[in-house]
Each structure stands twice: as C-alpha cells, then as structure tokens.
Amino acid sequence: MVPAAYSAWFVLFFSPILFDQKIFPSDGTLAAFFAPVALWNTLPLAGVPGLGDPQLQQLYPLRWVFAVLPREVGFNLFIVFSYVLASSLSFGYAFTLTRSVLAAAIGGLVFGMSGYMIAHLGHTGLVPAAAWLPLIIWSLEKLRREVSLGWLIIAALSIAMTIIAGHPQAFTYSIYLAFAYAVCLGSTSTLGWLRYVGLCLLVVCIGSALAAAHILPMIELADLSVRSEMQFEAFKQYSLPITQVRMMLFPYLFGGAYLPNFPTYFGQWNLAEITGYVGLLTLVLAGIGCSYRWNDRLGVFWLGAAAVSFSLALGDATPLLRITYYLPVINKLRAPARHFHEMALALSVLAAFGVHALQCHGESRKVATRAVAIGAAIMLLGLCFVVIFYDELQSTALARGTSLPPHYANPALWMPILVFTFSTIALFYWLKNVDSHARKVLLVTVLAIDLGSFGWFAGWRWGPPATILSTPDFAAKYLSDLNAERQRLMPMLGWEEPVLPFSTMMSQLYGIPSVGGYGALLIQRYAGLSLATNAGWINPSVLLPADRAPDLLAARYIVVPRSDSSRSASNGMQWSGQDLPIGLGTGCGTNNPRQAKIILPAALAIDRIGIVSRMACSTALGQAQDVAKLTVTDANGHSRVRVLRAGQDTAEWAIDCADVSSITKHSRARVFDSWDTVRAGFPTCQGHRFVSEVAVDAGSYKELLIDWIPDSPNVMTISKISLLDGRTGRSYVVGEYDFLFADSARFQHVQDFEASSVYRNLRAMPRVWLVSEVISARGEEILQAIRTSVMPDGTAYDPRRTAFVEEPFSLQSIAQQGRHSAVIVDLSGERVEITTQAPSPAFLVLSDVYYPGWTATIDGQETKIFRTNYALRGVTVPSGGHSIVFRYRPASFYLGLLISTLTALGLAGFAIHTVRRTAVALASRPVPKAE
Q1: Is residue 453 classed exposed, middle or buried when 0-12, 13-18 and 19+ CB atoms within 10 A define those classes?
Q2: Which residue segment(s) compose the domain that 143 sits in?
Q3: The pTM is what?
Q4: Do the Cβ atoms of 645 and 625 come closer than 8 Å?
C-alpha cells in the first residue's frame, strides 16, 4: 500500500517527463543503462573496466529489471522507482520509531522529495545509491532492539545494494552515518554497546563481501584513477557558500528554475550540487520534534546528524571539513554539499518525530504556535535581509549576465512566503482534529506542495526527447565509417555537446567508440595522454599542431562547437570568455611555434582587430621593438601587414614587479586585466595582460597569420582576438577552434550542424599498427615527446615509426614499406584478435588503454604487454605472419566474485541452519496437556 501510494505520487510529479515522450536527463550513464553486462567496455575512453566503474551499475539487479523494458520507458521507470524506494524505506524506518502512519508518510515524503534528491536526479548513479540509506539505518534499529536473522540479512543486503547501485560517495556517507548510529545508540541495545557495535561491523563486512565482485575492481580502478590522490582544494569544491545559505529558505534566490520567469542561475557553480532545500514545513515540524525529543538519544542523534552534515556541506567555512579530509575514503570524494544526503534523512526523521509528538501530546497547539512563530521570525528576517541588500544581489546577477525583477515581483521571494503561510494554516487546521483523515491528507498535500516549490521547477524538467534513444541517420553514417576503420570519435564538449548524438553519453548508446567519456574514476594515465576530464570535456590544447595524442588515440572525427556568430558590439570590442591556446616563440622553458594561423569560417567585413596578449622572458626587448607581424588576407587573396610592438601593443606580463621592472627595456602597454601573483622569494605583485586595437583597411578578410619576430629567447601568449567592423557595429570573436583547425594538412572540415562542426583528423592512426623502433624513456619524457613531436634526443617524433615504453627495451629493425600489416579481425569487448605480417621483427601498438588484467598471446603463446606511448598497449611481434590475441581476465573481479559467492553461500547456509534449528527446537518443545 505504501509503495503504491508513493508510486502514484511520483508518477504524477514526474508526469512532464513520463507523459510527454521525454527522457530524464543523465550525467553520462544513460547509455550504460542499456549496455549488456561486460567485464570491459570498449566504447568510451579507449576502454574502461565494466565492473570497476561504479556508474555503469553492471551488477545492480534493479538496473537489470528495468533495462529489459522498452527503451522509451525502462530508464524513466528506473529513475521513478529509485524515488519510490527512497520514500518507502524512509517510511518504514519512521514508522518503526513512531508507530504513526502520518508521521512516517511525512518522513518518507521529506527524504524522497528533498532538494538533495531531486536536484541530483541527473546523477543517475547517486539517487539509487542514496535511496538505500534509510534501509541500512532501519535494519540497525531493528537489530538494536532485538537480534534477528532476517534483519541481519536485510542489513547486509542493503549495504551491498548501496555499494553496487552506482555511486561510492553515497555508500561512503551512508556507512559513516551507520557507524555513528551504532556507536551513539549501542548502549541502549539489548546486546550491550560492545556486542552491538561488533554486530554492526560484522554486518558491514558481510555486505561488503557480498559486493566484493564490484568492490575489488573498483578499488583497482580508483588506485589508477585521477581520484587516487586529492588535494584539499579539490576536496572542498562544490560546498554551499555562506552567502547562499539563504537558499535553505529561498531555494531559487540565485535563479536557476525551469520556468522562464525565474532568472538564470547566477550563484556559485553549480546549483544541483549545493541545493539542500527540505521544505519550510519540514523545518517547523523538525523543530517541534527536537523540542519533544531533546533528552532522547534518538532525538539527540538525529539533531546532531543534521547539524554536523549541514556544517560539512558548508565546506571549509567550518573546521569540520578539514577533519574529515583525514578520514579514509572520504578524502577521495569532493563536493561536501553532498552531505545534504544525511541531513535530508535526519530532518525527515525529526519531522516525523514532530508530527508524532503533536498527535500524542495535549499541549501540541502551544508548541506548534511557538515553532511557527520562530519560523516566521526567521523567514521575516531572511526576507528583510534579502530586500535590504537586493541591489547587491542585482549587481551579482548583472555581473553574471542576467537581471533580476524588482524584489516584489521576484517569485523566488514571494513563493516561499506563500508556501510558509499556507503550510502554517494547514498545520493549525490539522491540529484542531488530528484524527481527521481529510485533514491528514491536506497536511501531506501542503507538504508536497512545499517540497515541490523547489522540485517542480528543478533541472529534471529539461529532459531531452525520447527520440534521442534511436540512432539518427547521420550518426549511423559516422558509426559505419568508424567501425570500418576501427577508429574513434573525439567529442570535445562531452555531455554538453550541442549535438546530442555526438555527446559522450549518446555516442556510447549508439555504439560509437569515443576518445571521451564520463566517470569520476577516469584512469590517470589516460587523462594525461588524452587531456580528457572525468566530466567528459577534452582540453582543446590537445589539438595543437605538435600534439600527437589524438593521432595515437585513432581519433578520426573531432566534434567541436561552431564558432561564435557575429553580434552587436555597441560597447566596443566583444571578447570571448574562453582564452585561445596561442603561444609564440621559444623561451621560459617552452618551445612554441613561431607562427599561428587562423582561418575564419567565412569572409568577414572588418576594419579593426583587437588582440589580448602578454610576453614573458622579454625584458631585453626595447621600447617599440617589433615583436610580431600580423598578416590579414582577404577573400581575393590580397594581404595587409601590420606590426605589433613591445611597450605599445604588448609587454612583459610581470612588468610591475619590482625585480622585473628594473631590468625591462620597454614600458607597460594598455592593460586588459590584472591579477595578484606570488613568486617564491619575492613580494606579491600584479601580473597583466595587455590589449591592442590594430586598424586595417576596411575589407572582407578570410585569414589571419601571426609571425613571431625576435630571435632572442622570449615568448608571447595571445589569449583573445576580436574582429570589429566599426561601420556596422558588428564584431566576430575568434574562437579557439578557428585557430586549432587552421591547418588544412591535418584537419578537413566534414559537416556543420546547428551548433557543432565535425572535422576529420587526417593524421589519425589506425586502431592497431606496427612500428620498427622502440625507445625506452621515463613517463614524463614520453608525454613531452607526444605533446611536442620532439623525442628526448631532439629528433622528430613520428608515431608511425617509433613507439615508447617505460622498461628497459630496444628495437630497431628495417621496416620495408608496404610489406608489414596489422589488421583487427575480432573486437568484442574482452577480446581483441589481430593478424600481423612483417618481414622483420616489429612492435605492435594497440590504441587501447593499458590496464591490469589484460593478457596477450602470439600464436597461442603468452607474451608480455608493455605500457606503450604513456597509456596504451604494445607487444613485440616476430617476423612473418602471426595471430595476436588480447584477452581481459581481471584477477580483481574473479577474486571478488569468489568472495561474493562464498559469502552468499555461507549466509544462505547459516540462514538455513538457523531456520532448521529453530524448527527443531519448536518441534521438541513439550506440548502442554489439556486440563
């Protein structure tokens, strides 16, 4: 009955998605939801371990159940079920504590619809994992009261399900909260404190052992990932700023709601991570619960849990976060605001306590009046604070490119006030007859509206159409081409790619192999080679002319956003928010090219060029000395030349630092922006970027060429370029891809979409190839050679001829052109079969990520796999024709599977033995004689 009621509610709540042919948004795991269970996923990131990556949810039984349904409904129902599960389990725990259906219903609704749960809907693995927390606590509560085999098994299974549901952060926070629950409440257990805590630890061990088939591969991946170490600065990212605590009362004060009458979000990034709204009525009810249970261990525990988790969500604004940084596992997890997970459950329990207290105590109206009065005072103070400083809030919004309506017309202010008012009316109306079913329904309905005042307008409403689940024709064309060549796609913007079929998420759904991917546990070596991030983005600098990483990764097609279109420049030059990766000259330990070319997407009518730049190691350049030649070419091939000069158009970036200014021979140019810089052994000073506007003859220009002039060891960095037509007031902001794709010998334009462009990488290597030379070098030397196309000995690096390894190894053979070949004949996840033909010994490079668990054989004989080209795989190949087979046989998974199987069998055997023993005891009990 309870799950059915929650199901009806959440189906109604999520109806804009469920009944409008849409799909819930996902952070990158939508494709994985429909993927078959596999030890190795060959599509994203040059391959990832399927059972080690938690977001893939490979072992989560509920994913299996819903994934067999039609695509249009399976994923959506899986998401809805996770919320039903969270609310239902919270109901069960609250009912155990209060024995009140109304109190439990409110507790379940608060947790399932809390801002944390709704805002994180797009984190597909987080919500299902977070949903199991109430069952963990519920089972520990049952075991505290009485040891039961059934609840012991339930506790172990709930822990296992939390682990395999798809998000290690939710599991980690849940386990720490469960441990605190056992320690704080163990003295009230029928077993006594020590035995109860020991039993709880045993349950955690059993649950972890049941999930060992996932845990061990995940630990292996984590140790090799970008999360293997995390500095405190990264650890504290995504915490709730003190200035935005007001969002606990006014959740959309900083914008970000679905409807257009709310402004665009302008607070600290990002809204989903720092949302902790639990409802205004919830806070009133929780306050009532605290007033009645302040001397009760359960009440004190949940009040403490709420306070501690909220303090942690504030990041380093309190000292608590620094303490948790030294705790195991937690210190690998960023986003402290996700501690709203525990806070949401704590407040749901306290709210249930409050409802139960109002039902059972005669002075309930008096207590409620006091709580509402305190709540009203807090709301009024919050409103006054916002109104008094509204101009400051408006300035913040304007600085982020949005504008606020007047405070009296801002729904982010008046909507919470209305919600609080109606919640108060409903609460007192119910208190007049606490046994009335109609009034109970009204109270729950008002609470749902309260919670929905945030949740209904949250980001899940932006779900894409269900049609994206079907492979579009143009994506099928690229898929066919890539499969034929065994090469990959490189979507530069990850899951934010404007053309969904090419995004990190959707390319996997369509079976397109991708250089990019999404996942917290991105392999560190691969990240270093590809410059991919765990959010799916790829640093554009990987496309610089000398960088061979895209070639080594067989990136045949590269998808980028189209260049900015012309727009009004009524206030002068318009500047891109992104910096260009243009570096010129040799010096300061860098070896940049001396020339940069920019090809514009169309001939543009301009008469001025704006350039933002800075120089380094340039103190010897004199005033007005020529430093760069700017050549602009029009649509007819005619060129004009202008010169940039030191001290006029650009300057040394540290020219205002005392030790630098004293030796710099040119003056400071016009400053574009400045920043404080700290250098070891020197006082803090300001660094600068400089801006110059170069006039050119009015005309339509197609190409810009910038040549570095000085021969001395100095460099120039160009961050921004803007083109302006002063006659029409139109400007064109040069994007980084205008520069990066200027080399027609490397990139060929293929196709434009509404917001994206596709280029073919003409230097892309095949998925597998043979080289005749192998050089041993250190990892950093190898990466430097790949980035610069210069080998450690100073010679040119050609990946078609040379491969790098990091072990003592040497190979130099005579490669006969056209006589050697390597062909993939089978590529099926855990198995890659290749046939080779070579007239002399060679080295085979496979453009798949190097990872433990892979083995290789040549004609059935095992051979060693070398970590090649920093992050890929390679093996030596004898002359002649051979069959090379790579197989993935991860010891971590098989050991974990053995542990999981033995634990499951042992638990089942223990349960059977206990049941039989109980049955025998009951059967042997003497039957009382009838009188």
Answers
A1: buried
A2: 2-462
A3: 0.87
A4: yes
